[in-house]
Amino acid sequence: MPLPSTSDYPPGLLDTTMDQLRTLLAVYEEGTALGAARRLGREQSSIQKQLDTMNRKLGEHCGEPLLRKRGRGERVQFTRTGEELARLARGTLDGWREGLDTARRRRGRSLRVGSTRYTLGYLLNAVEQVNDRFTREGVELTMAHVRSGALLEKLRCHELDLVCGSILVSASAGAAETTEAAEQDVRLAGYEVMEWRRGGFCLVTNQPDSDLAPDSRQGSRAVGVRCLPRLPLVVSGDGLIPSVLRGWFGPEYRRRMRIAAEIDSAHYGFELLSSRVLYGSMLVTQGIGEAIAEGRLPEAQGLRTLPLAEDMGTSQRVLVGAFRRSDPENLDPDHPVSLLWEELARQHARIRDEERESARREAAPLAAPVC
């Protein structure tokens, strides 16, 4: 396809710069040339000069000016043409920025990673091992906090290149809890998954045992899913746990539950229960429950955990690990995403080896005493 010639474009279009588009958009969003000047850190006279230029060149071509001046201190009046071109300027600038960001990521010039709160330690340890190389090679690294419910969406929209966290997956009875099973989840098509662990759920509570109706089939301390609607629950507004409750009780689960408190983070819920301001229970993942039981979460001190028996509805599991898109550049072992991915894999292997060694030592018989 031949390249278009200069005559194929309207007069003034090729003379319009990205900076002028930014100015037009700033005036449109701020309402005045003075507001745009403050936002952009420029002189008002410079802003006005660019507006006059666009008004003259583009306005003449369209048949009406982009905007009309009003009294001192009043908001600029944009014509319909001006409004349309301001919105077009936003799309043009965003499109170019996205294209440049994509090119930088593809060439390994930038890396954007994220994690949930409880997987941040894994990510930081891995970043520490590769960060010197990133610095030498001029890789711009940015990090973000991610909620479990938004993990895959952040990857899909290219907001992040690699994420450590948890997602909810279904688990049929007897299914092998392996990465291969995870890959059967249709939501994971187009992603690579490094599975670290997979587990169920438990309750964190400050309620007496007599209020919890233990499930005798699962042992004296287990609480069945069927019992949850009559317990005072501390529930987050979004994230992984609401998805779990929807899987068991449907989209209107809140109408069936006794919501004692609504929270925006597990940390807040632990402190609330620890304070004894209210008595209730909180659904958490098995991994978090184990951390509480082992005393690794100071904010949950004084609380106890109980296993949860999935005695109704769909069997659900939490898959914890690292996630990235199946992009062609990730096949390059020297790409920043690949370097960080491999470091995470080494850390996971090391942790697994330590766990196996610890289990072996605990299982080993005690040596006979020396007489």
Please tell me about this protein's structure:
The structure is a single chain. With about 375 residues, the protein is an alpha/beta fold. The chain is about 40% helix and about 20% strand. The chain is built from 12 helices and 13 strands. It has helices spanning about 20-30, 35-40, 45-60, 80-105, 120-135, 150-155, 180, 240-250, 255, 265-275, 285-295, 335-365; strands spanning about 65-70, 75-80, 110-115, 140-145, 160-170, 190-200, 200-205, 225, 230-235, 260-265, 280-285, 305-310, 315-325. Strands 8-12-7-11-9-10 form a 6-stranded mixed sheet. A 5-stranded mixed sheet has the order 4-3-5-13-6. Strand 3 (about 110-115), helix 5 and strand 4 form a beta-alpha-beta unit. It is elongated, with a radius of gyration of 28 Å. The protein starts with 17 loop residues before the first helix and ends in an 8-residue tail after the last helix. About 30% of the residues are buried. Residues about 175-185 and about 365-370 have low confidence and may be disordered.
